[in-house]
Amino acid sequence: MGARSFAITLALLALVGLLAFGLTTKGSDRLAVGEPVPDSDLPLLDGAGSGSLADYRGDWVLVNVWASWCTPCRDESPALQRFHEQHSGAGFTVLGVDTEDTTEAGLEFVDEFGLTYPQFHDGPGEYRDELETTGVPESFLVDPDGELALHRPGPVTEQYLAEQVEPLIGESS
Amino acid sequence: MGRRALTLLTALLACAALSAAVASAQEPQTSLPDIEDEVMCPVCGVSLELATEAPQAEQMREFIRERIDGGQSKEEIKDALVAEFGSEVLAIPEGEGFDLAAWLVPGAAIVFAGAAIFVGLRRWRRASAAGGGSAEPPAGELDSEEAERLESDLARYEL
After folding, report:
1. Residue A29 has what pLDDT?
2. N or C, fewer C-beta in 10 Å, chain B?
3. Whole-prediction pTM value?
4. Do the interacting molecules here have an ipTM over 0.95?
5. Residue A153 in contact with residue A76, Cβ under 8 Å?
């Protein structure tokens, strides 16, 4: 085999290897139940400093990723607020993450729906990427150890919160 | 020039300066189309001008319009967008830091490709000049045996 044939074969093998690597690793880094949930520092939506999911270690946290331009987020917000009112203070909180949204629009949304739970701002969408979300809204129930207990792509409903989330947070509180 | 004329001239100059200041405060310094093609719609993954119907794009346009109406310049508005969405919101990378690579790498690639073509052409011309007295027939010409075979083949298929 000549040097040229060897180089071409090597290049083809590298290409096939790269494709195989891409196919085998695709989607494998999606956050799974039991895995630690990323807890990067994020600015608070109201501009009063910053915070992190780690600040809530020891409590159950329902991380809700939303944006003001997202219609299903509008639909689920009242249910989330009611659930937060019913369970906050008993080792549980809803934690909003306003993603890829302007601060102004995010604050207007919070005001419109009277949301009282803490809100982070993820303008560049980097935290959303860390959570490997597929869209908005998306919710992650994080246990007191900071690990994923439940994942909900799409909007939550009163029924979902009562049937899926409540039994889990009720066990410990 | 009398004192009266001097007063009149001063008043005229003051009026001109005042009207210029008012005009600059009222007239927008930029326009939506001027900015739209230089920023990205992060959710859509395309420039804002191409993201016609996405809700986030519409929200970004509103954000830009408000600032245009407020008399902000293009750079001020782009800075505000970067503050909200990060530097990835810029469709055209900034000419500093890591983003500088986006300008330098293609330039270096063009220079490198040009140099490679130049060197290749020189070598090819030298090789052609040196191979002028070669015993082998030039490409495209047939030796006698091949010409004979071609003739016989053509004769065989002649109708």
Report:
1. 63
2. C
3. 0.67
4. no
5. no
How many Cβ pairs closer than 8 A exist between chain A and B?
Answer: 35
What CA–CA distance (Å, rounded) separates A40 from A131? Answer: 10
Most distant CA atoms of chain A, gap in Å: 75
The reply to whether residue B56 touches residue A69, judged by beta carbons under 8 angstroms, is yes
| Chain B residues lying within 8 Å of A73, measured CB to CB | none
Q: CA B45, B48, B52, B54 torsion: positive or negative? A: positive
Find chain B residues with C-beta within 8 A of A105's C-beta. Answer: 59, 63
* pLDDT of B137 higher than 60: no
* Predicted pLDDT of residue B4: 76
Asked if A130 has any chain B CB less than 8 Å from its own CB, the reply is: no
- Tokens 């993603």 belong to A99
Report whether A142 contacts A37 (CB < 8 A): yes
Residues A44-48: contacts with CB within 8 Å, 24+ apart?
A44/A118, A44/A119, A44/A120, A44/A121, A45/A96, A45/A98, A45/A103, A45/A106, A45/A107, A45/A110, A45/A119, A45/A120, A45/A121, A46/A107, A46/A119, A47/A103
Segment holding A13, helix H or strand E: helix A3-25
- A126 neighbourhood in chain B, CB within 8 Å: 86
